[in-house]
Amino acid sequence: MKNFEYVRPASVSDAVAAAAVPGSAYLASGTNLLDLMKGGISRPDRLVDVTRLPGLDRIEHLADGGIRIGALVRNADLAHDPDFAKSCPAVAEALLSGASPQLRNAATVGGNLLQRTRCGYFYDTASACNKREPGTGCDARHGENRLHAVLGWSEACIATHPSDFCVPLVALDAVVEIEGRAGRREIALEALYRLPGDTPERENVLEPGDLIVALRLPPAVRTFSAHARYLKVRERTSYAFAMISAAAGLRIEAGKIRDARLALGGVAAKPWRARPAEDILAGASADAATFRRAAEAALADAKPSGDNLFKIELAKRIIVRALTLAAVGTPARMSALPGSPFASVSGVLHDA
Amino acid sequence: MTPEIRLAQAPAHARHGSNIGQPLTRREGVLKVKGEARFAADNHPPGMLHAVLAVSQIARGRVNFLDIQAAKGHPGVVEVMTPANRPPLAEDPDAKTNPFMFRLDLLQNDQVRYANQPIAVVIAETLEAATEGAALLSPRYDVLPARVGLDSGESFVPPAVGVGNPSEMRRGDVEAGLSAASKRIDATYETPAQYHNAMEPHAIVAAWDGDKLSIDTPSQGLAIAQGRLAGLFGISPDKIHIRSPFLGGGFGSKGLMSGPQVLGILAARLVGKPVKLVLRREHMYGPVGHRSASRQRLRIGLDGDGLLTAIDHHARIASSSFDDFFEPAADASHTLYASPAIATSHDAVRVDAGTPLFMRAPGEATGSIALESAIDEAAWACGIDPLTFRIKNYAEVEPISGKPFSSKALRQCYAQGAERFGWARRPLEPRQMRDGAGLLVGWGMGTATFPALMFAAEARAALRGDGSGLMEIGAHDMGQGAWTALGQIAADSLGLDVDRVEFRSGTSDLPDAGIAGGSAHTATAGMAIHNAGAAVIAKLADLATGDERSSLFGAGNAGVTARDGRLFRRDDESRSESYVDILKRAGLAQIEASGKGAADPAAQSTYAMHAHGAVFAEVKVDPDLGQIRVTRMVGAFATGRIINPRMVQSQIFGGMIWGMSFALHEKAIIDHRSGRILNANLAEYYVPVNADVPPMEALMIDEYDPHVNALGIKGVGEIGVTGSAGAVANAVWHATGIRVRRFPIGIDDLVTAG
Amino acid sequence: MNLSISLTVNGVRRDVELSDPRVTLLDLLRERLDLTGTKKGCDRGQCGACTVLVDGRRINSCLALAISHDGAGILTIEGVARGDQLHPVQAAFIAHDGFQCGFCTPGQIMSAIGLIEEAQAGDDPERIRECMSGNLCRCGAYAGITEAVLDAQQSLATANQRRSA
């Protein structure tokens, strides 16, 4: 790991000023950054430790019914916050399906939003990777790319976004509050991320010094709490990144879907909001045919970036299943294996 | 440096008679649960420096530049070892004077022959400085095209496979058997390169004192390691002291001294200070061995009654460009199923990868998953239940050799395992079972087998004036339970309770216990201990029976037995004397004797010696999403005498989990152009996690084998992998109706086919 | 740059002058404080062998910068037993043979202690398995680990009941 200057600012504005210096990086818990630094993928000159900034570790239930989550709230604390889990069960399920208990105890909400891809070529510093080193090419494009993107990719980059947490957040219109050199601003989480295009190194719209201070969920999230699920297919039962995941939220009234939210993980460089599918779902009846039509619409623009054609069909099936599970209703208790298709192995919920 | 290992035993055990057979808890258990078990990397001698490898990022070519100045300029970096300044060796690391002396990469030149090959070592005052120093070397290369995969070059027939097995064997006329068959299976199975990934990365702490070398390093073969180092450094073996009280897993990767371990010793020599070198996880995907990928074609002939007419098993495997290790995959077909004609053959290609090596059940595991899948396919082709099919084709004698088995309780394994699992309720057709949640359920089985091997070992025993015993042997505990099981054998051999025997082990100054491999360690080291104990008891008996003051005087012809610290006259148990009294009267503080353990060549030439088992697995598969979960496993094993049922169960479970992993999880993802491994980590090289592991059962079937060795031990370390891999794969087929022949079975395989 | 920190490790205050901001909590424990019970299996948060409790929560110490944890309370495997009296989790790991080689064991035990403290799993073995999945065991001692956690949790609960009764 390259040596670095370590600074621990006392205020958000000091942090922003410190991190605006080129070569700086914010350090929260470090579960992703330190991994990248140990691998030589990130080599910052200066770490700006934000873990002690005051006021960023609260979960607030806002007067308008929205929820505001400080950027330093730990994943585990958010997932286990009873009010939050009740309001946003799919988010809690996504959080608990990710990484391990140890990592969830450390990882912060803000850091999680900025998690980097797990593309093996990004991590292998000897490989060509436009994201890591602009202009070098993309060795994944014709390499071992069974798990790579099927939506929104470019010739320059076919990596996927690895987060579980962000998938339901994008579905639920989460907003991020950003403190920057020009003061505070907020943008939709979905708009935080950029597709690779010709500049895959620019993964988001943050400017130097920009610090995510909070995440906000609009009041409308509560209208989906009764029918919200996160489903994640992976190659071992736990402690694995998603091959593909889906977050689904439905508002069902009198047997009809009034409103729907749907997003996919593991298919693109950003958590993928499936608006065409939502349009089909809204007003339709909650049945298998509707769900399949929604799935087809969600993947209408998909194309394989390599040896991953199967992911398109798999994504459709995951959508259908996630919607089916959401329609059945949010379980009264978090499933024993959050996000897993095996969450209800015996056909009954695991109520201890 | 390492304090003497003091084993703490808690809780105390109620015992009845013999120590052998008791489910004692691990004698080093307290040390391990308190974090006090000192593994190699836990040592920190005064003045120690840290060394970190720089490894090649190309698979083939040469290093043409290392930025040594940048590395040395990093604060704390003390030295950079490269081919230019690496201390001389007495022996060429590329010399090969016997087939099991593997070539090592010890900075002998600038050539690169696999990705992650060590190309320099950076030594620094801190681990942080050494790590960054290695990164700052920023090597540049002349790159040659990498040879990757099983079709990367011209194939050849290796001179031998595994441990000197012929690469081709046949009995009967396979082609005739196939053409006479009424049904034929012709299927090709592929297995990936796998990496041992012991939890403990290879590590060494090395200190030189003149020409004396003192090292802490995990080793499954202390004496071989000592000999290898003696050769490389041109010093006598007795100048080399190796401590390896605990291995954090080995699985074959710590069987022989690896290049990086020797580089740690060279680094210590270069800087004249103790050096610690610990591999980073990614460094373990190259210089410390792996399991070769394979492509196996099985042709099976079947007559109208479902009897085998022929088995032809061919395996394509890979070795490195510069050394020979050939995974004996096809040999799995030698022993299990009766067939009038059997042929096995291998061919190989050379790839730009580190040399493959022994990895838990080398050959047996790889071959087993293919053979057990093919047998399952054969049973289905005949419309016969897979268990019935296996019993129909049960081998009464070893098929390839015609030799009788020394013992074989496989029928009981089949019967008891099937009973316990509920196999009789299995529908013949696939895709018939669903659970309440709509998941597909499948049941599969596989036959497990592993040869009962023995190497050579020695042990030294003593009885002391206070009536306690001492047993010394340089054995290796890599988790299988040597401290405990060998201690139990030692106690019985000395006629003492295990708590009355001091058991010294795990260092190279003790008698050679033979390599801890081939599932042979308990048998080999155990027999040396057994014989050493018997020899010292014989001495004690001589003292007593030859002394007219002893109540045992004159019992020489009748003989005595040793029990509970006393010798008893065999024909009159009322006459006995304690060890303490015998030694006291003789005026001896201690008596000593040695013993050896080795295979009996006569028995070996007469009998085929194998452990056997039957594994039954249940999987659930999401019918749409293709995700698989093993939900139940039952294994029944006949492995001769069980020394410690608790440790044996753990070994068997571990093997069964490895089998599951073989079928469903692990594989190296290798870039087909560069030869670099893209998942050289534990996040994406999947080994099973706790949630993957279902409730498991291991039934140990009683088996008495008078031929394998006097203790009747067959070994349990590897057999669990075999059979299990096929059982899981066959269960996936039974759940889905989709036969996947490329392992591990992936979600994509099921989604694409379904 | 002021690189001095103070930590409470296993109840003992430790003032440490770090030579280097790069030092992880894991390397601080192992290489500078001679607390080598905590193991390094991957150094990348992928195996759990380095699990310790920081202010009562289980984390991967390999992905924690020591400097960022100034003032924290650390519990490592060395601080779990009371002299010769094993913690119930430690005793249960021995009784259920929840390990073979023992290398992952300190991390497993710290993780189990953290899990019991978190009180999310109840007595459902499935939840225990899921919540212990951040700790790899290549020997495959998972069955014993799951049993040990259930058993230890039960005995801790019983002991607590007795204390509060």
Summarize the structure in words.
The complex is a heterotrimer of chains A (352), B (754) and C (165). Chain A is of the alpha+beta class and 352 residues long. Among the domains of chain A are: 48 residues, Uridine Diphospho-n-acetylenolpyruvylglucosamine Reductase, domain 2, CATH 3.30.43; 106 residues, CO dehydrogenase flavoprotein, C-terminal domain (Enolase-like, domain 1). In chain A, 28% of the residues lie in helices and 18% in strands. A 5-stranded antiparallel beta sheet of chain A has the order 4-5-8-6-7. A 4-stranded antiparallel beta sheet of chain A has the order 9-10-11-12. A 3-stranded parallel beta sheet of chain A has the order 1-3-2, with helices on one face. The radius of gyration of chain A is 20 Å and the shape is globular. Chain A starts with a strand and ends in a 24-residue tail after the last helix. Chain B has 754 residues and is of the alpha+beta class. Chain B folds into 3 domains: 173 residues, Aldehyde oxidase/xanthine dehydrogenase, a/b hammerhead (Aldehyde Oxidoreductase, domain 3); 309 residues, 2-Layer Sandwich (Aldehyde Oxidoreductase, domain 4); 142 residues, Aldehyde oxidase/xanthine dehydrogenase, molybdopterin binding domain (Aldehyde Oxidoreductase, domain 4, 2-Layer Sandwich), CATH 3.30.365. Chain B has 16 helices and 27 strands. In chain B, the strands form 6 sheets. A 7-stranded mixed beta sheet of chain B has the order 3-5-1-12-9-10-11, sandwiched between helices. In chain B, strands 7-15-14-13-8 form a 5-stranded mixed beta sheet, sandwiched between helices. In chain B, strands 16-17-25-26-27 form a 5-stranded mixed beta sheet, with helices on both faces. The radius of gyration of chain B is 27 Å and the shape is globular. About 1% of the residues of chain B have low confidence. Chain C folds into 2 domains: 76 residues, Beta-grasp domain (Ubiquitin-like (UB roll), Roll), CATH 3.10.20.30; 77 residues, [2Fe-2S]-binding domain (DNA polymerase, domain 1, Orthogonal Bundle), CATH 1.10.150. Helix content of chain C is 36%, strand content 14%. Chains in contact: A-B, A-C, B-C.
